[in-house]
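sry for the spam today, last one i promise. struct tokens for design, 424 residues
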């Protein structure tokens, strides 16, 4: 008689790690630190008109670079278009197809209809702006030919699981980055206050402004809403961070994890991508039996410690367990204090690393190198600095390129790697 075997939980496949590329340089950094795919925007039709955008030659170079490293490129075409926005769209869609981008990201049904007609073989992903919050909506968009759905940010984990059970399309979830104080980013406040339409790519980010109460006949007097004499950041949400919930999202069958941040710095992109890459690589090492209760899986604490070092606006899990409360806002300032600052990007490796300086460097400075595929950093002390003509320097200013001579050998340094420094 055969012994009855215990039922094993299937090991889930890892989702794609999708990173922002606000510029060619940021894309290179995202790929260096482990992004599986990147998303970027052209000069029009996207929701980040003031981020670094890619004209046709730049996009062609970006696609070539990414594809050489087997990294897909998705292009945002996710404005809510008015009639005059549609005039050049057919030619733009044809150009994207000719460039062999891997998918376009849309939100507007009219843009989707045009894309289906003009470039029927170009895959379409649905933007979070389309606000997919239920199974019927997910099935609707899938019937329109959409391959992947970036779900609304207002969904709980339970709702994400239900969508996975009821829909065959790929599902993508934002896991890290800035949050809009509006429904999945569909905000009118910027247009109302500044004339810049957030839904057509020109958000002025008024949710980050400082506000105060003003009495009509005394406009010169600003009355604080909170205990702050300068006013209050009443609309300023903390940044999303679902790092600790990755095991549950992976087990739920999410196909892609998306990081927000095309307007963020090169160092922010590299720092966040490397933490999520290390987290996914750690999950890949677990046995089948570990996945029986994914809610009990705990990531190594050094991953959480490292994500906190990226700074920004403090962190929240937003709607993942239900509607967030007032503690998920940052009321007293626009940003939290940044504990670390970037200092250099490695550009070449010769007898010494040639780096591009981003914050002043001085001989004797203590810095640390950010390795990839891990959150390990290596401390180093600058013993000497040389310019590109090998003349010694005591100080290197931002924008300059210098050779770093370190007090001790530093193995593992790679081109495109980042150095940082603790503040204070």
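last one done:
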């Amino acid at each position: 008689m055969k012994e009855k075997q215990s039922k094993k939980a299937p090991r889930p496949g890892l989702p794609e790690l999708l990173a922002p590329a606000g510029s060619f340089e940021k894309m290179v950094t995202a790929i260096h630190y482990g992004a599986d795919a990147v998303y970027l925007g052209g000069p029009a039709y996207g929701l980040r008109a003031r981020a670094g955008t890619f004209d046709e030659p730049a996009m062609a170079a970006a696609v070539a670079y990414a594809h050489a490293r087997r990294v897909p490129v998705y292009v945002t075409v996710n404005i809510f278009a008015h009639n005059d926005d549609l005039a050049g769209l057919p030619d733009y869609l044809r150009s994207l197809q000719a460039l062999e981008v891997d998918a376009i990201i849309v939100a507007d049904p009219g843009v989707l209809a045009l894309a289906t007609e003009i470039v029927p073989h170009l895959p379409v992903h649905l933007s979070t702006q389309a606000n997919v919050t239920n199974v019927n909506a997910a099935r609707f968009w899938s019937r329109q030919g959409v391959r992947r759905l970036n779900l609304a940010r207002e969904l709980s984990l339970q709702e994400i699981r239900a969508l996975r059970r009821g829909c065959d399309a790929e599902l993508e979830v934002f896991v890290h980055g800035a949050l809009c104080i509006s429904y999945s980013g569909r905000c009118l406040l910027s247009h109302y206050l500044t004339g810049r339409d957030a839904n057509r790519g020109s958000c002025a980010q008024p949710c980050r402004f400082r506000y105060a109460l003003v009495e009509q006949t005394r406009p010169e007097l600003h009355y604080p809403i909170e205990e702050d004499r300068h006013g209050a950041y009443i609309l300023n949400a903390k940044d999303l961070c679902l790092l600790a919930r990755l095991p549950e999202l992976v087990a739920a069958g999410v196909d892609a994890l998306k990081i927000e941040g095309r307007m963020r710095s090169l160092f922010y992109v590299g720092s966040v991508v490397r933490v999520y890459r290390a987290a996914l690589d750690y999950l890949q090492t677990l046995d089948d039996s570990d996945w029986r209760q994914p809610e009990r899986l705990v990531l190594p604490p050094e991953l959480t410690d490292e994500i906190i070092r990226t700074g920004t606006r403090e962190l929240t899990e937003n709607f993942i367990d239900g509607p967030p409360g007032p503690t998920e806002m940052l009321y007293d300032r626009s940003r939290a204090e940044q504990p670390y600052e970037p200092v250099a990007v490695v550009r070449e490796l010769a007898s010494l690393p040639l780096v591009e300086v981003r914050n002043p460097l001085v001989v004797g400075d203590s810095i640390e190198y950010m390795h990839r595929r891990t959150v390990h950093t290596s401390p180093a002390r600058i013993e000497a600095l040389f310019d590109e003509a090998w003349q010694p320097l005591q100080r290197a200013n931002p924008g300059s390129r210098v050779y770093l001579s370190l007090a001790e050998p530093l193995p593992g340094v790679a081109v495109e790697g980042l150095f940082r420094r603790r503040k204070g």
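Residues 1-8 have pLDDT under 50 and may be disordered. ok im logging off now
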